[in-house]
What does this fold into?
Amino acid sequence: MKRLLGRLWRFAAALALPVLTAALLLYFGRPDYQPSDVGAVGPPLEVETPAPLQEWRLRFLNADGTPAAQAVVLAHQPDARYAEADAEGYVRLLLPPGSALAFYAHAPGMDTLSWGPEPEPPGGPVRFSPLPESAGAEEGAVRKPAEVVVRTPDHDPLAGALVLARRVGRPTEPPWIGIADGDGKASFLGLPAAPLRLEVYAPGMPPVPAMLLGEQRVDPTAGGPLTVAVEAAWLTLEGLPPDAMTGLLRDGFEDALPRQMVPLDGILQLGPLPPGDYRLDVEGAARDLLLQAGRHTSR
It folds into this structure.
């Protein structure tokens, strides 16, 4: 009996090391994301799964019938979102089922187009009209061209930002629409010599409603480029699990930003976004983030 017990003891001892090693690998093989400075672990981010979206495919033509390849569409009903036309003038919008769509559309050298609200897309291509050479007497003179420079308070260009120019006191009038280039410059044709309000939105967020970064009143008769400085936040998160799915929700807003997959290097780039409180979900573990103006890195 003692000999049998001795053999069993030696067998158990031989198994102890590989069993312990396997257990440690299972426990520590893929650590959870544990950033040191972005808040405590919370419950998973709860975002209601939306109903399947309805696709509206629109085609835009310039006044001469050619594809409006540089057209920009700004939907303002059911919510604010924008999309850009492809080389053939096609624009793809994803909307909640049963939505009535209303939008403004703009193409370089063309008059801003207003459409809707309608529950069905246009039956054929939508054609722009040429930009009027002059405005009515009550509207004042037209400045052609006009340039808006969008930057941060530190003078960094805000490339890709959506810029709307609205005449002060006329909120329902179609805005002038532009997209900032790599230098933060958006060009406009036909801005009136009247007080304007510039609205700047974070770039590249369809089908999620666009986030307003800031707005500023300007005088287009002052001479020189119009400049608007807005505060934006960028955050680089390092050490995330590669291929993990992430979600981001801004406090006080119902819509989460589109989910992103962490690149193979484990580094996720967020921004430009309005500074404020957010909730980040990484593989079911949520943490609070305070995005401050400027560029930041966190592990």
Q: What stands out?
A: Residues 1-30 form one domain. Residues 4-9, 11-41, 134-138 have pLDDT under 50 and may be disordered. Residues 201 and 214 are 7 Å apart (CA to CA). The first strand starts at residue 41 and ends at 42.
